[in-house]
Design goal:
The structure holds two protein chains of two kinds. Chain A is of the alpha+beta class. Chain A is built from three helices and ten strands. Chain B is 42% helix and 11% strand. Classes of the chains: A alpha+beta, B alpha/beta.
Chain lengths: 153, 293
């Protein structure tokens, strides 16, 4: 079994946005040397998420708008209070709830060194309270490539 | 559009220059968010629709054994982006305070002064117990004289502070009346609406032409509910619109609050476009000497 973990930083640039991280995930898988296995993608922040959907700008807007409708920024939340652990008020329960609704992770199988996913599936980092420098984790687990065999002389 | 009240405490690049800053931010100023690259600060301004931000340090050498950002570091940050307007801070308990202020303004090109009586532990209008300072006048009076002669504004922390050791008694706005009265050419900004002494704060701003207020107040609920409480119920919105439109500057208190949220809160109060323009820009530019008063 081979395990490779990378922590990647992404600078979000808006209050809310979906950032396509598929190429980065594919790179980590490619460089991991894992032939058969799985890849896990997780955000390290509770006001962000990992989402898989079709890579279309209209869908990106629909996802964010629907999450805003379900968990609006402004609401009568218990989280709207001073948090001693942070030295500041919370009041971003809407972002936390979007993270709960949209999920914080995704996983895909790996077969023959490639991620097994639908042709239209894209992996997004979801920012719900930006702009911020955020960290997500890509972990690859599986059997390693067999050593290359020399062609017969 | 200008944010008149920010603290650049979580700028990651500055921790490399001054490693003790992280401890100071976490344990003295008491802000515990994850440090961010400078780019995040600038993006936060972009998202909020603001152009520039005033950077405020606090020199707490005597009372806390540290500077919550030195004047030199503020000047360095200002060189990294022309969107920053650097203010100085000096320690009122130090003999060198007046000279330090002159150096900060003349050599480091800082454009205002920040004092935090609850952090620096002094009454703005009173002599210290040791008796230093002119008889019957305040410990910080020589600093005010220098600021007045330099033509720079002073932002005073007023009201409650989240810093664990900072006592609100030093931040009661009424102590600033002597300063406003004794230094009529010195512009002072009462930060955080002086909360909870909002009416005292408003009283001073109504009466004294040289007294201003910033909006960097958030002590419970969320920005939009809290500012609506302060600026529409503790004080009627009509008083802001009619009597205080030339006396309030926008401040966020970033990073204790995101700038974007405070902008949204102030814009949502129901003030006229003309009043908002003064709060977000005109009044700040006047204080900075960029436009005539």
């Amino acid at each position: 079994m081979k395990i490779k973990l990378e922590k990647l930083e992404v600078q979000t640039r808006r209050d809310k946005e979906l950032i396509d991280i598929t190429p980065e995930v594919e790179r980590v898988v490619r460089e991991s040397g894992v032939r058969e296995g799985v890849v896990n993608i997780l955000t390290m922040h509770t006001s962000s998420g990992i989402i898989v959907t079709e890579g279309l700008p209209c869908l990106e807007m629909d996802v964010l708008n629907r999450l805003e409708a379900l968990a609006p920024d402004e609401g009568d939340y218990y989280h709207n209070r001073y948090l001693d652990i942070d030295g500041r008020l919370g009041f971003n329960a809407g972002a936390h709830l979007k993270s709960v609704l949209g999920g914080y992770s995704a996983f895909f199988p790996i077969e023959d060194e490639r991620i097994v996913k639908g042709s239209r599936q894209r992996i997004y980092f979801a920012e719900y309270d930006g702009p911020l420098a955020r960290t997500y984790v890509v972990q690859v687990l599986g059997t390693a490539n067999p050593p290359r065999q020399r062609p017969p002389q | 559009m200008i944010d008149f009240h920010t603290h650049p405490l979580l700028v990651r690049e500055m921790f490399e220059r001054e490693p003790d800053l992280l401890r100071i931010a976490r344990d003295v100023f008491y802000i515990r968010n994850i440090p961010q690259p400078l780019e995040t600060f600038l993006l936060e301004l972009d998202v909020s629709g603001l152009d520039r931000a005033v950077l405020l340090p606090i020199d707490a050498s005597t009372t806390r054994g540290c500077q919550i950002y030195s004047n030199e570091l503020i000047a360095e940050l200002c060189e990294m982006s022309d969107r920053f307007i650097g203010f100085a801070s000096v320690d009122p308990h130090k003999e060198s305070a007046v000279d330090d202020l002159e150096h900060a303004v003349k050599d480091l090109k800082l454009r205002g002064l920040k004092l935090s009586p609850p952090t620096q532990e002094f009454y703005p209008n009173d002599a210290e117990p040791s008796g230093r300072g002119p008889s019957g006048r305040g410990l910080a009076y020589p600093i005010y004289e220098k600021a007045q002669s330099l033509g720079i504004p002073i932002v005073f922390h007023a009201g409650m502070s989240w810093e664990p050791r900072a006592r609100a008694k030093y931040g009661q706005p009424i102590y600033l009346e002597d300063v406003a009265c004794d230094f009529p050419e010195l512009n002072i900004v009462i930060a955080h609406f002086g909360w909870p002494w909002v009416l005292e704060t408003v009283m001073l701003a109504l009466k004294y032409p040289n007294v201003y207020i910033d909006t960097a107040a958030l002590y419970f609920d969320d920005p939009w509910d809290f500012l609506a409480f302060v600026m529409t119920r503790q004080v009627p919105l009509s008083a802001i619109e009619k009597s205080l439109r030339h006396k309030i500057v926008f401040g966020s208190n970033y990073p204790r609050v995101e700038i974007k949220n405070m902008v949204k809160a102030v814009k949502g109060l129901g003030l006229s476009d003309g009043c908002l323009k003064l709060i977000f820009e005109g009044n700040a530019r006047k204080l900075l000497g960029e436009v005539a008063g």
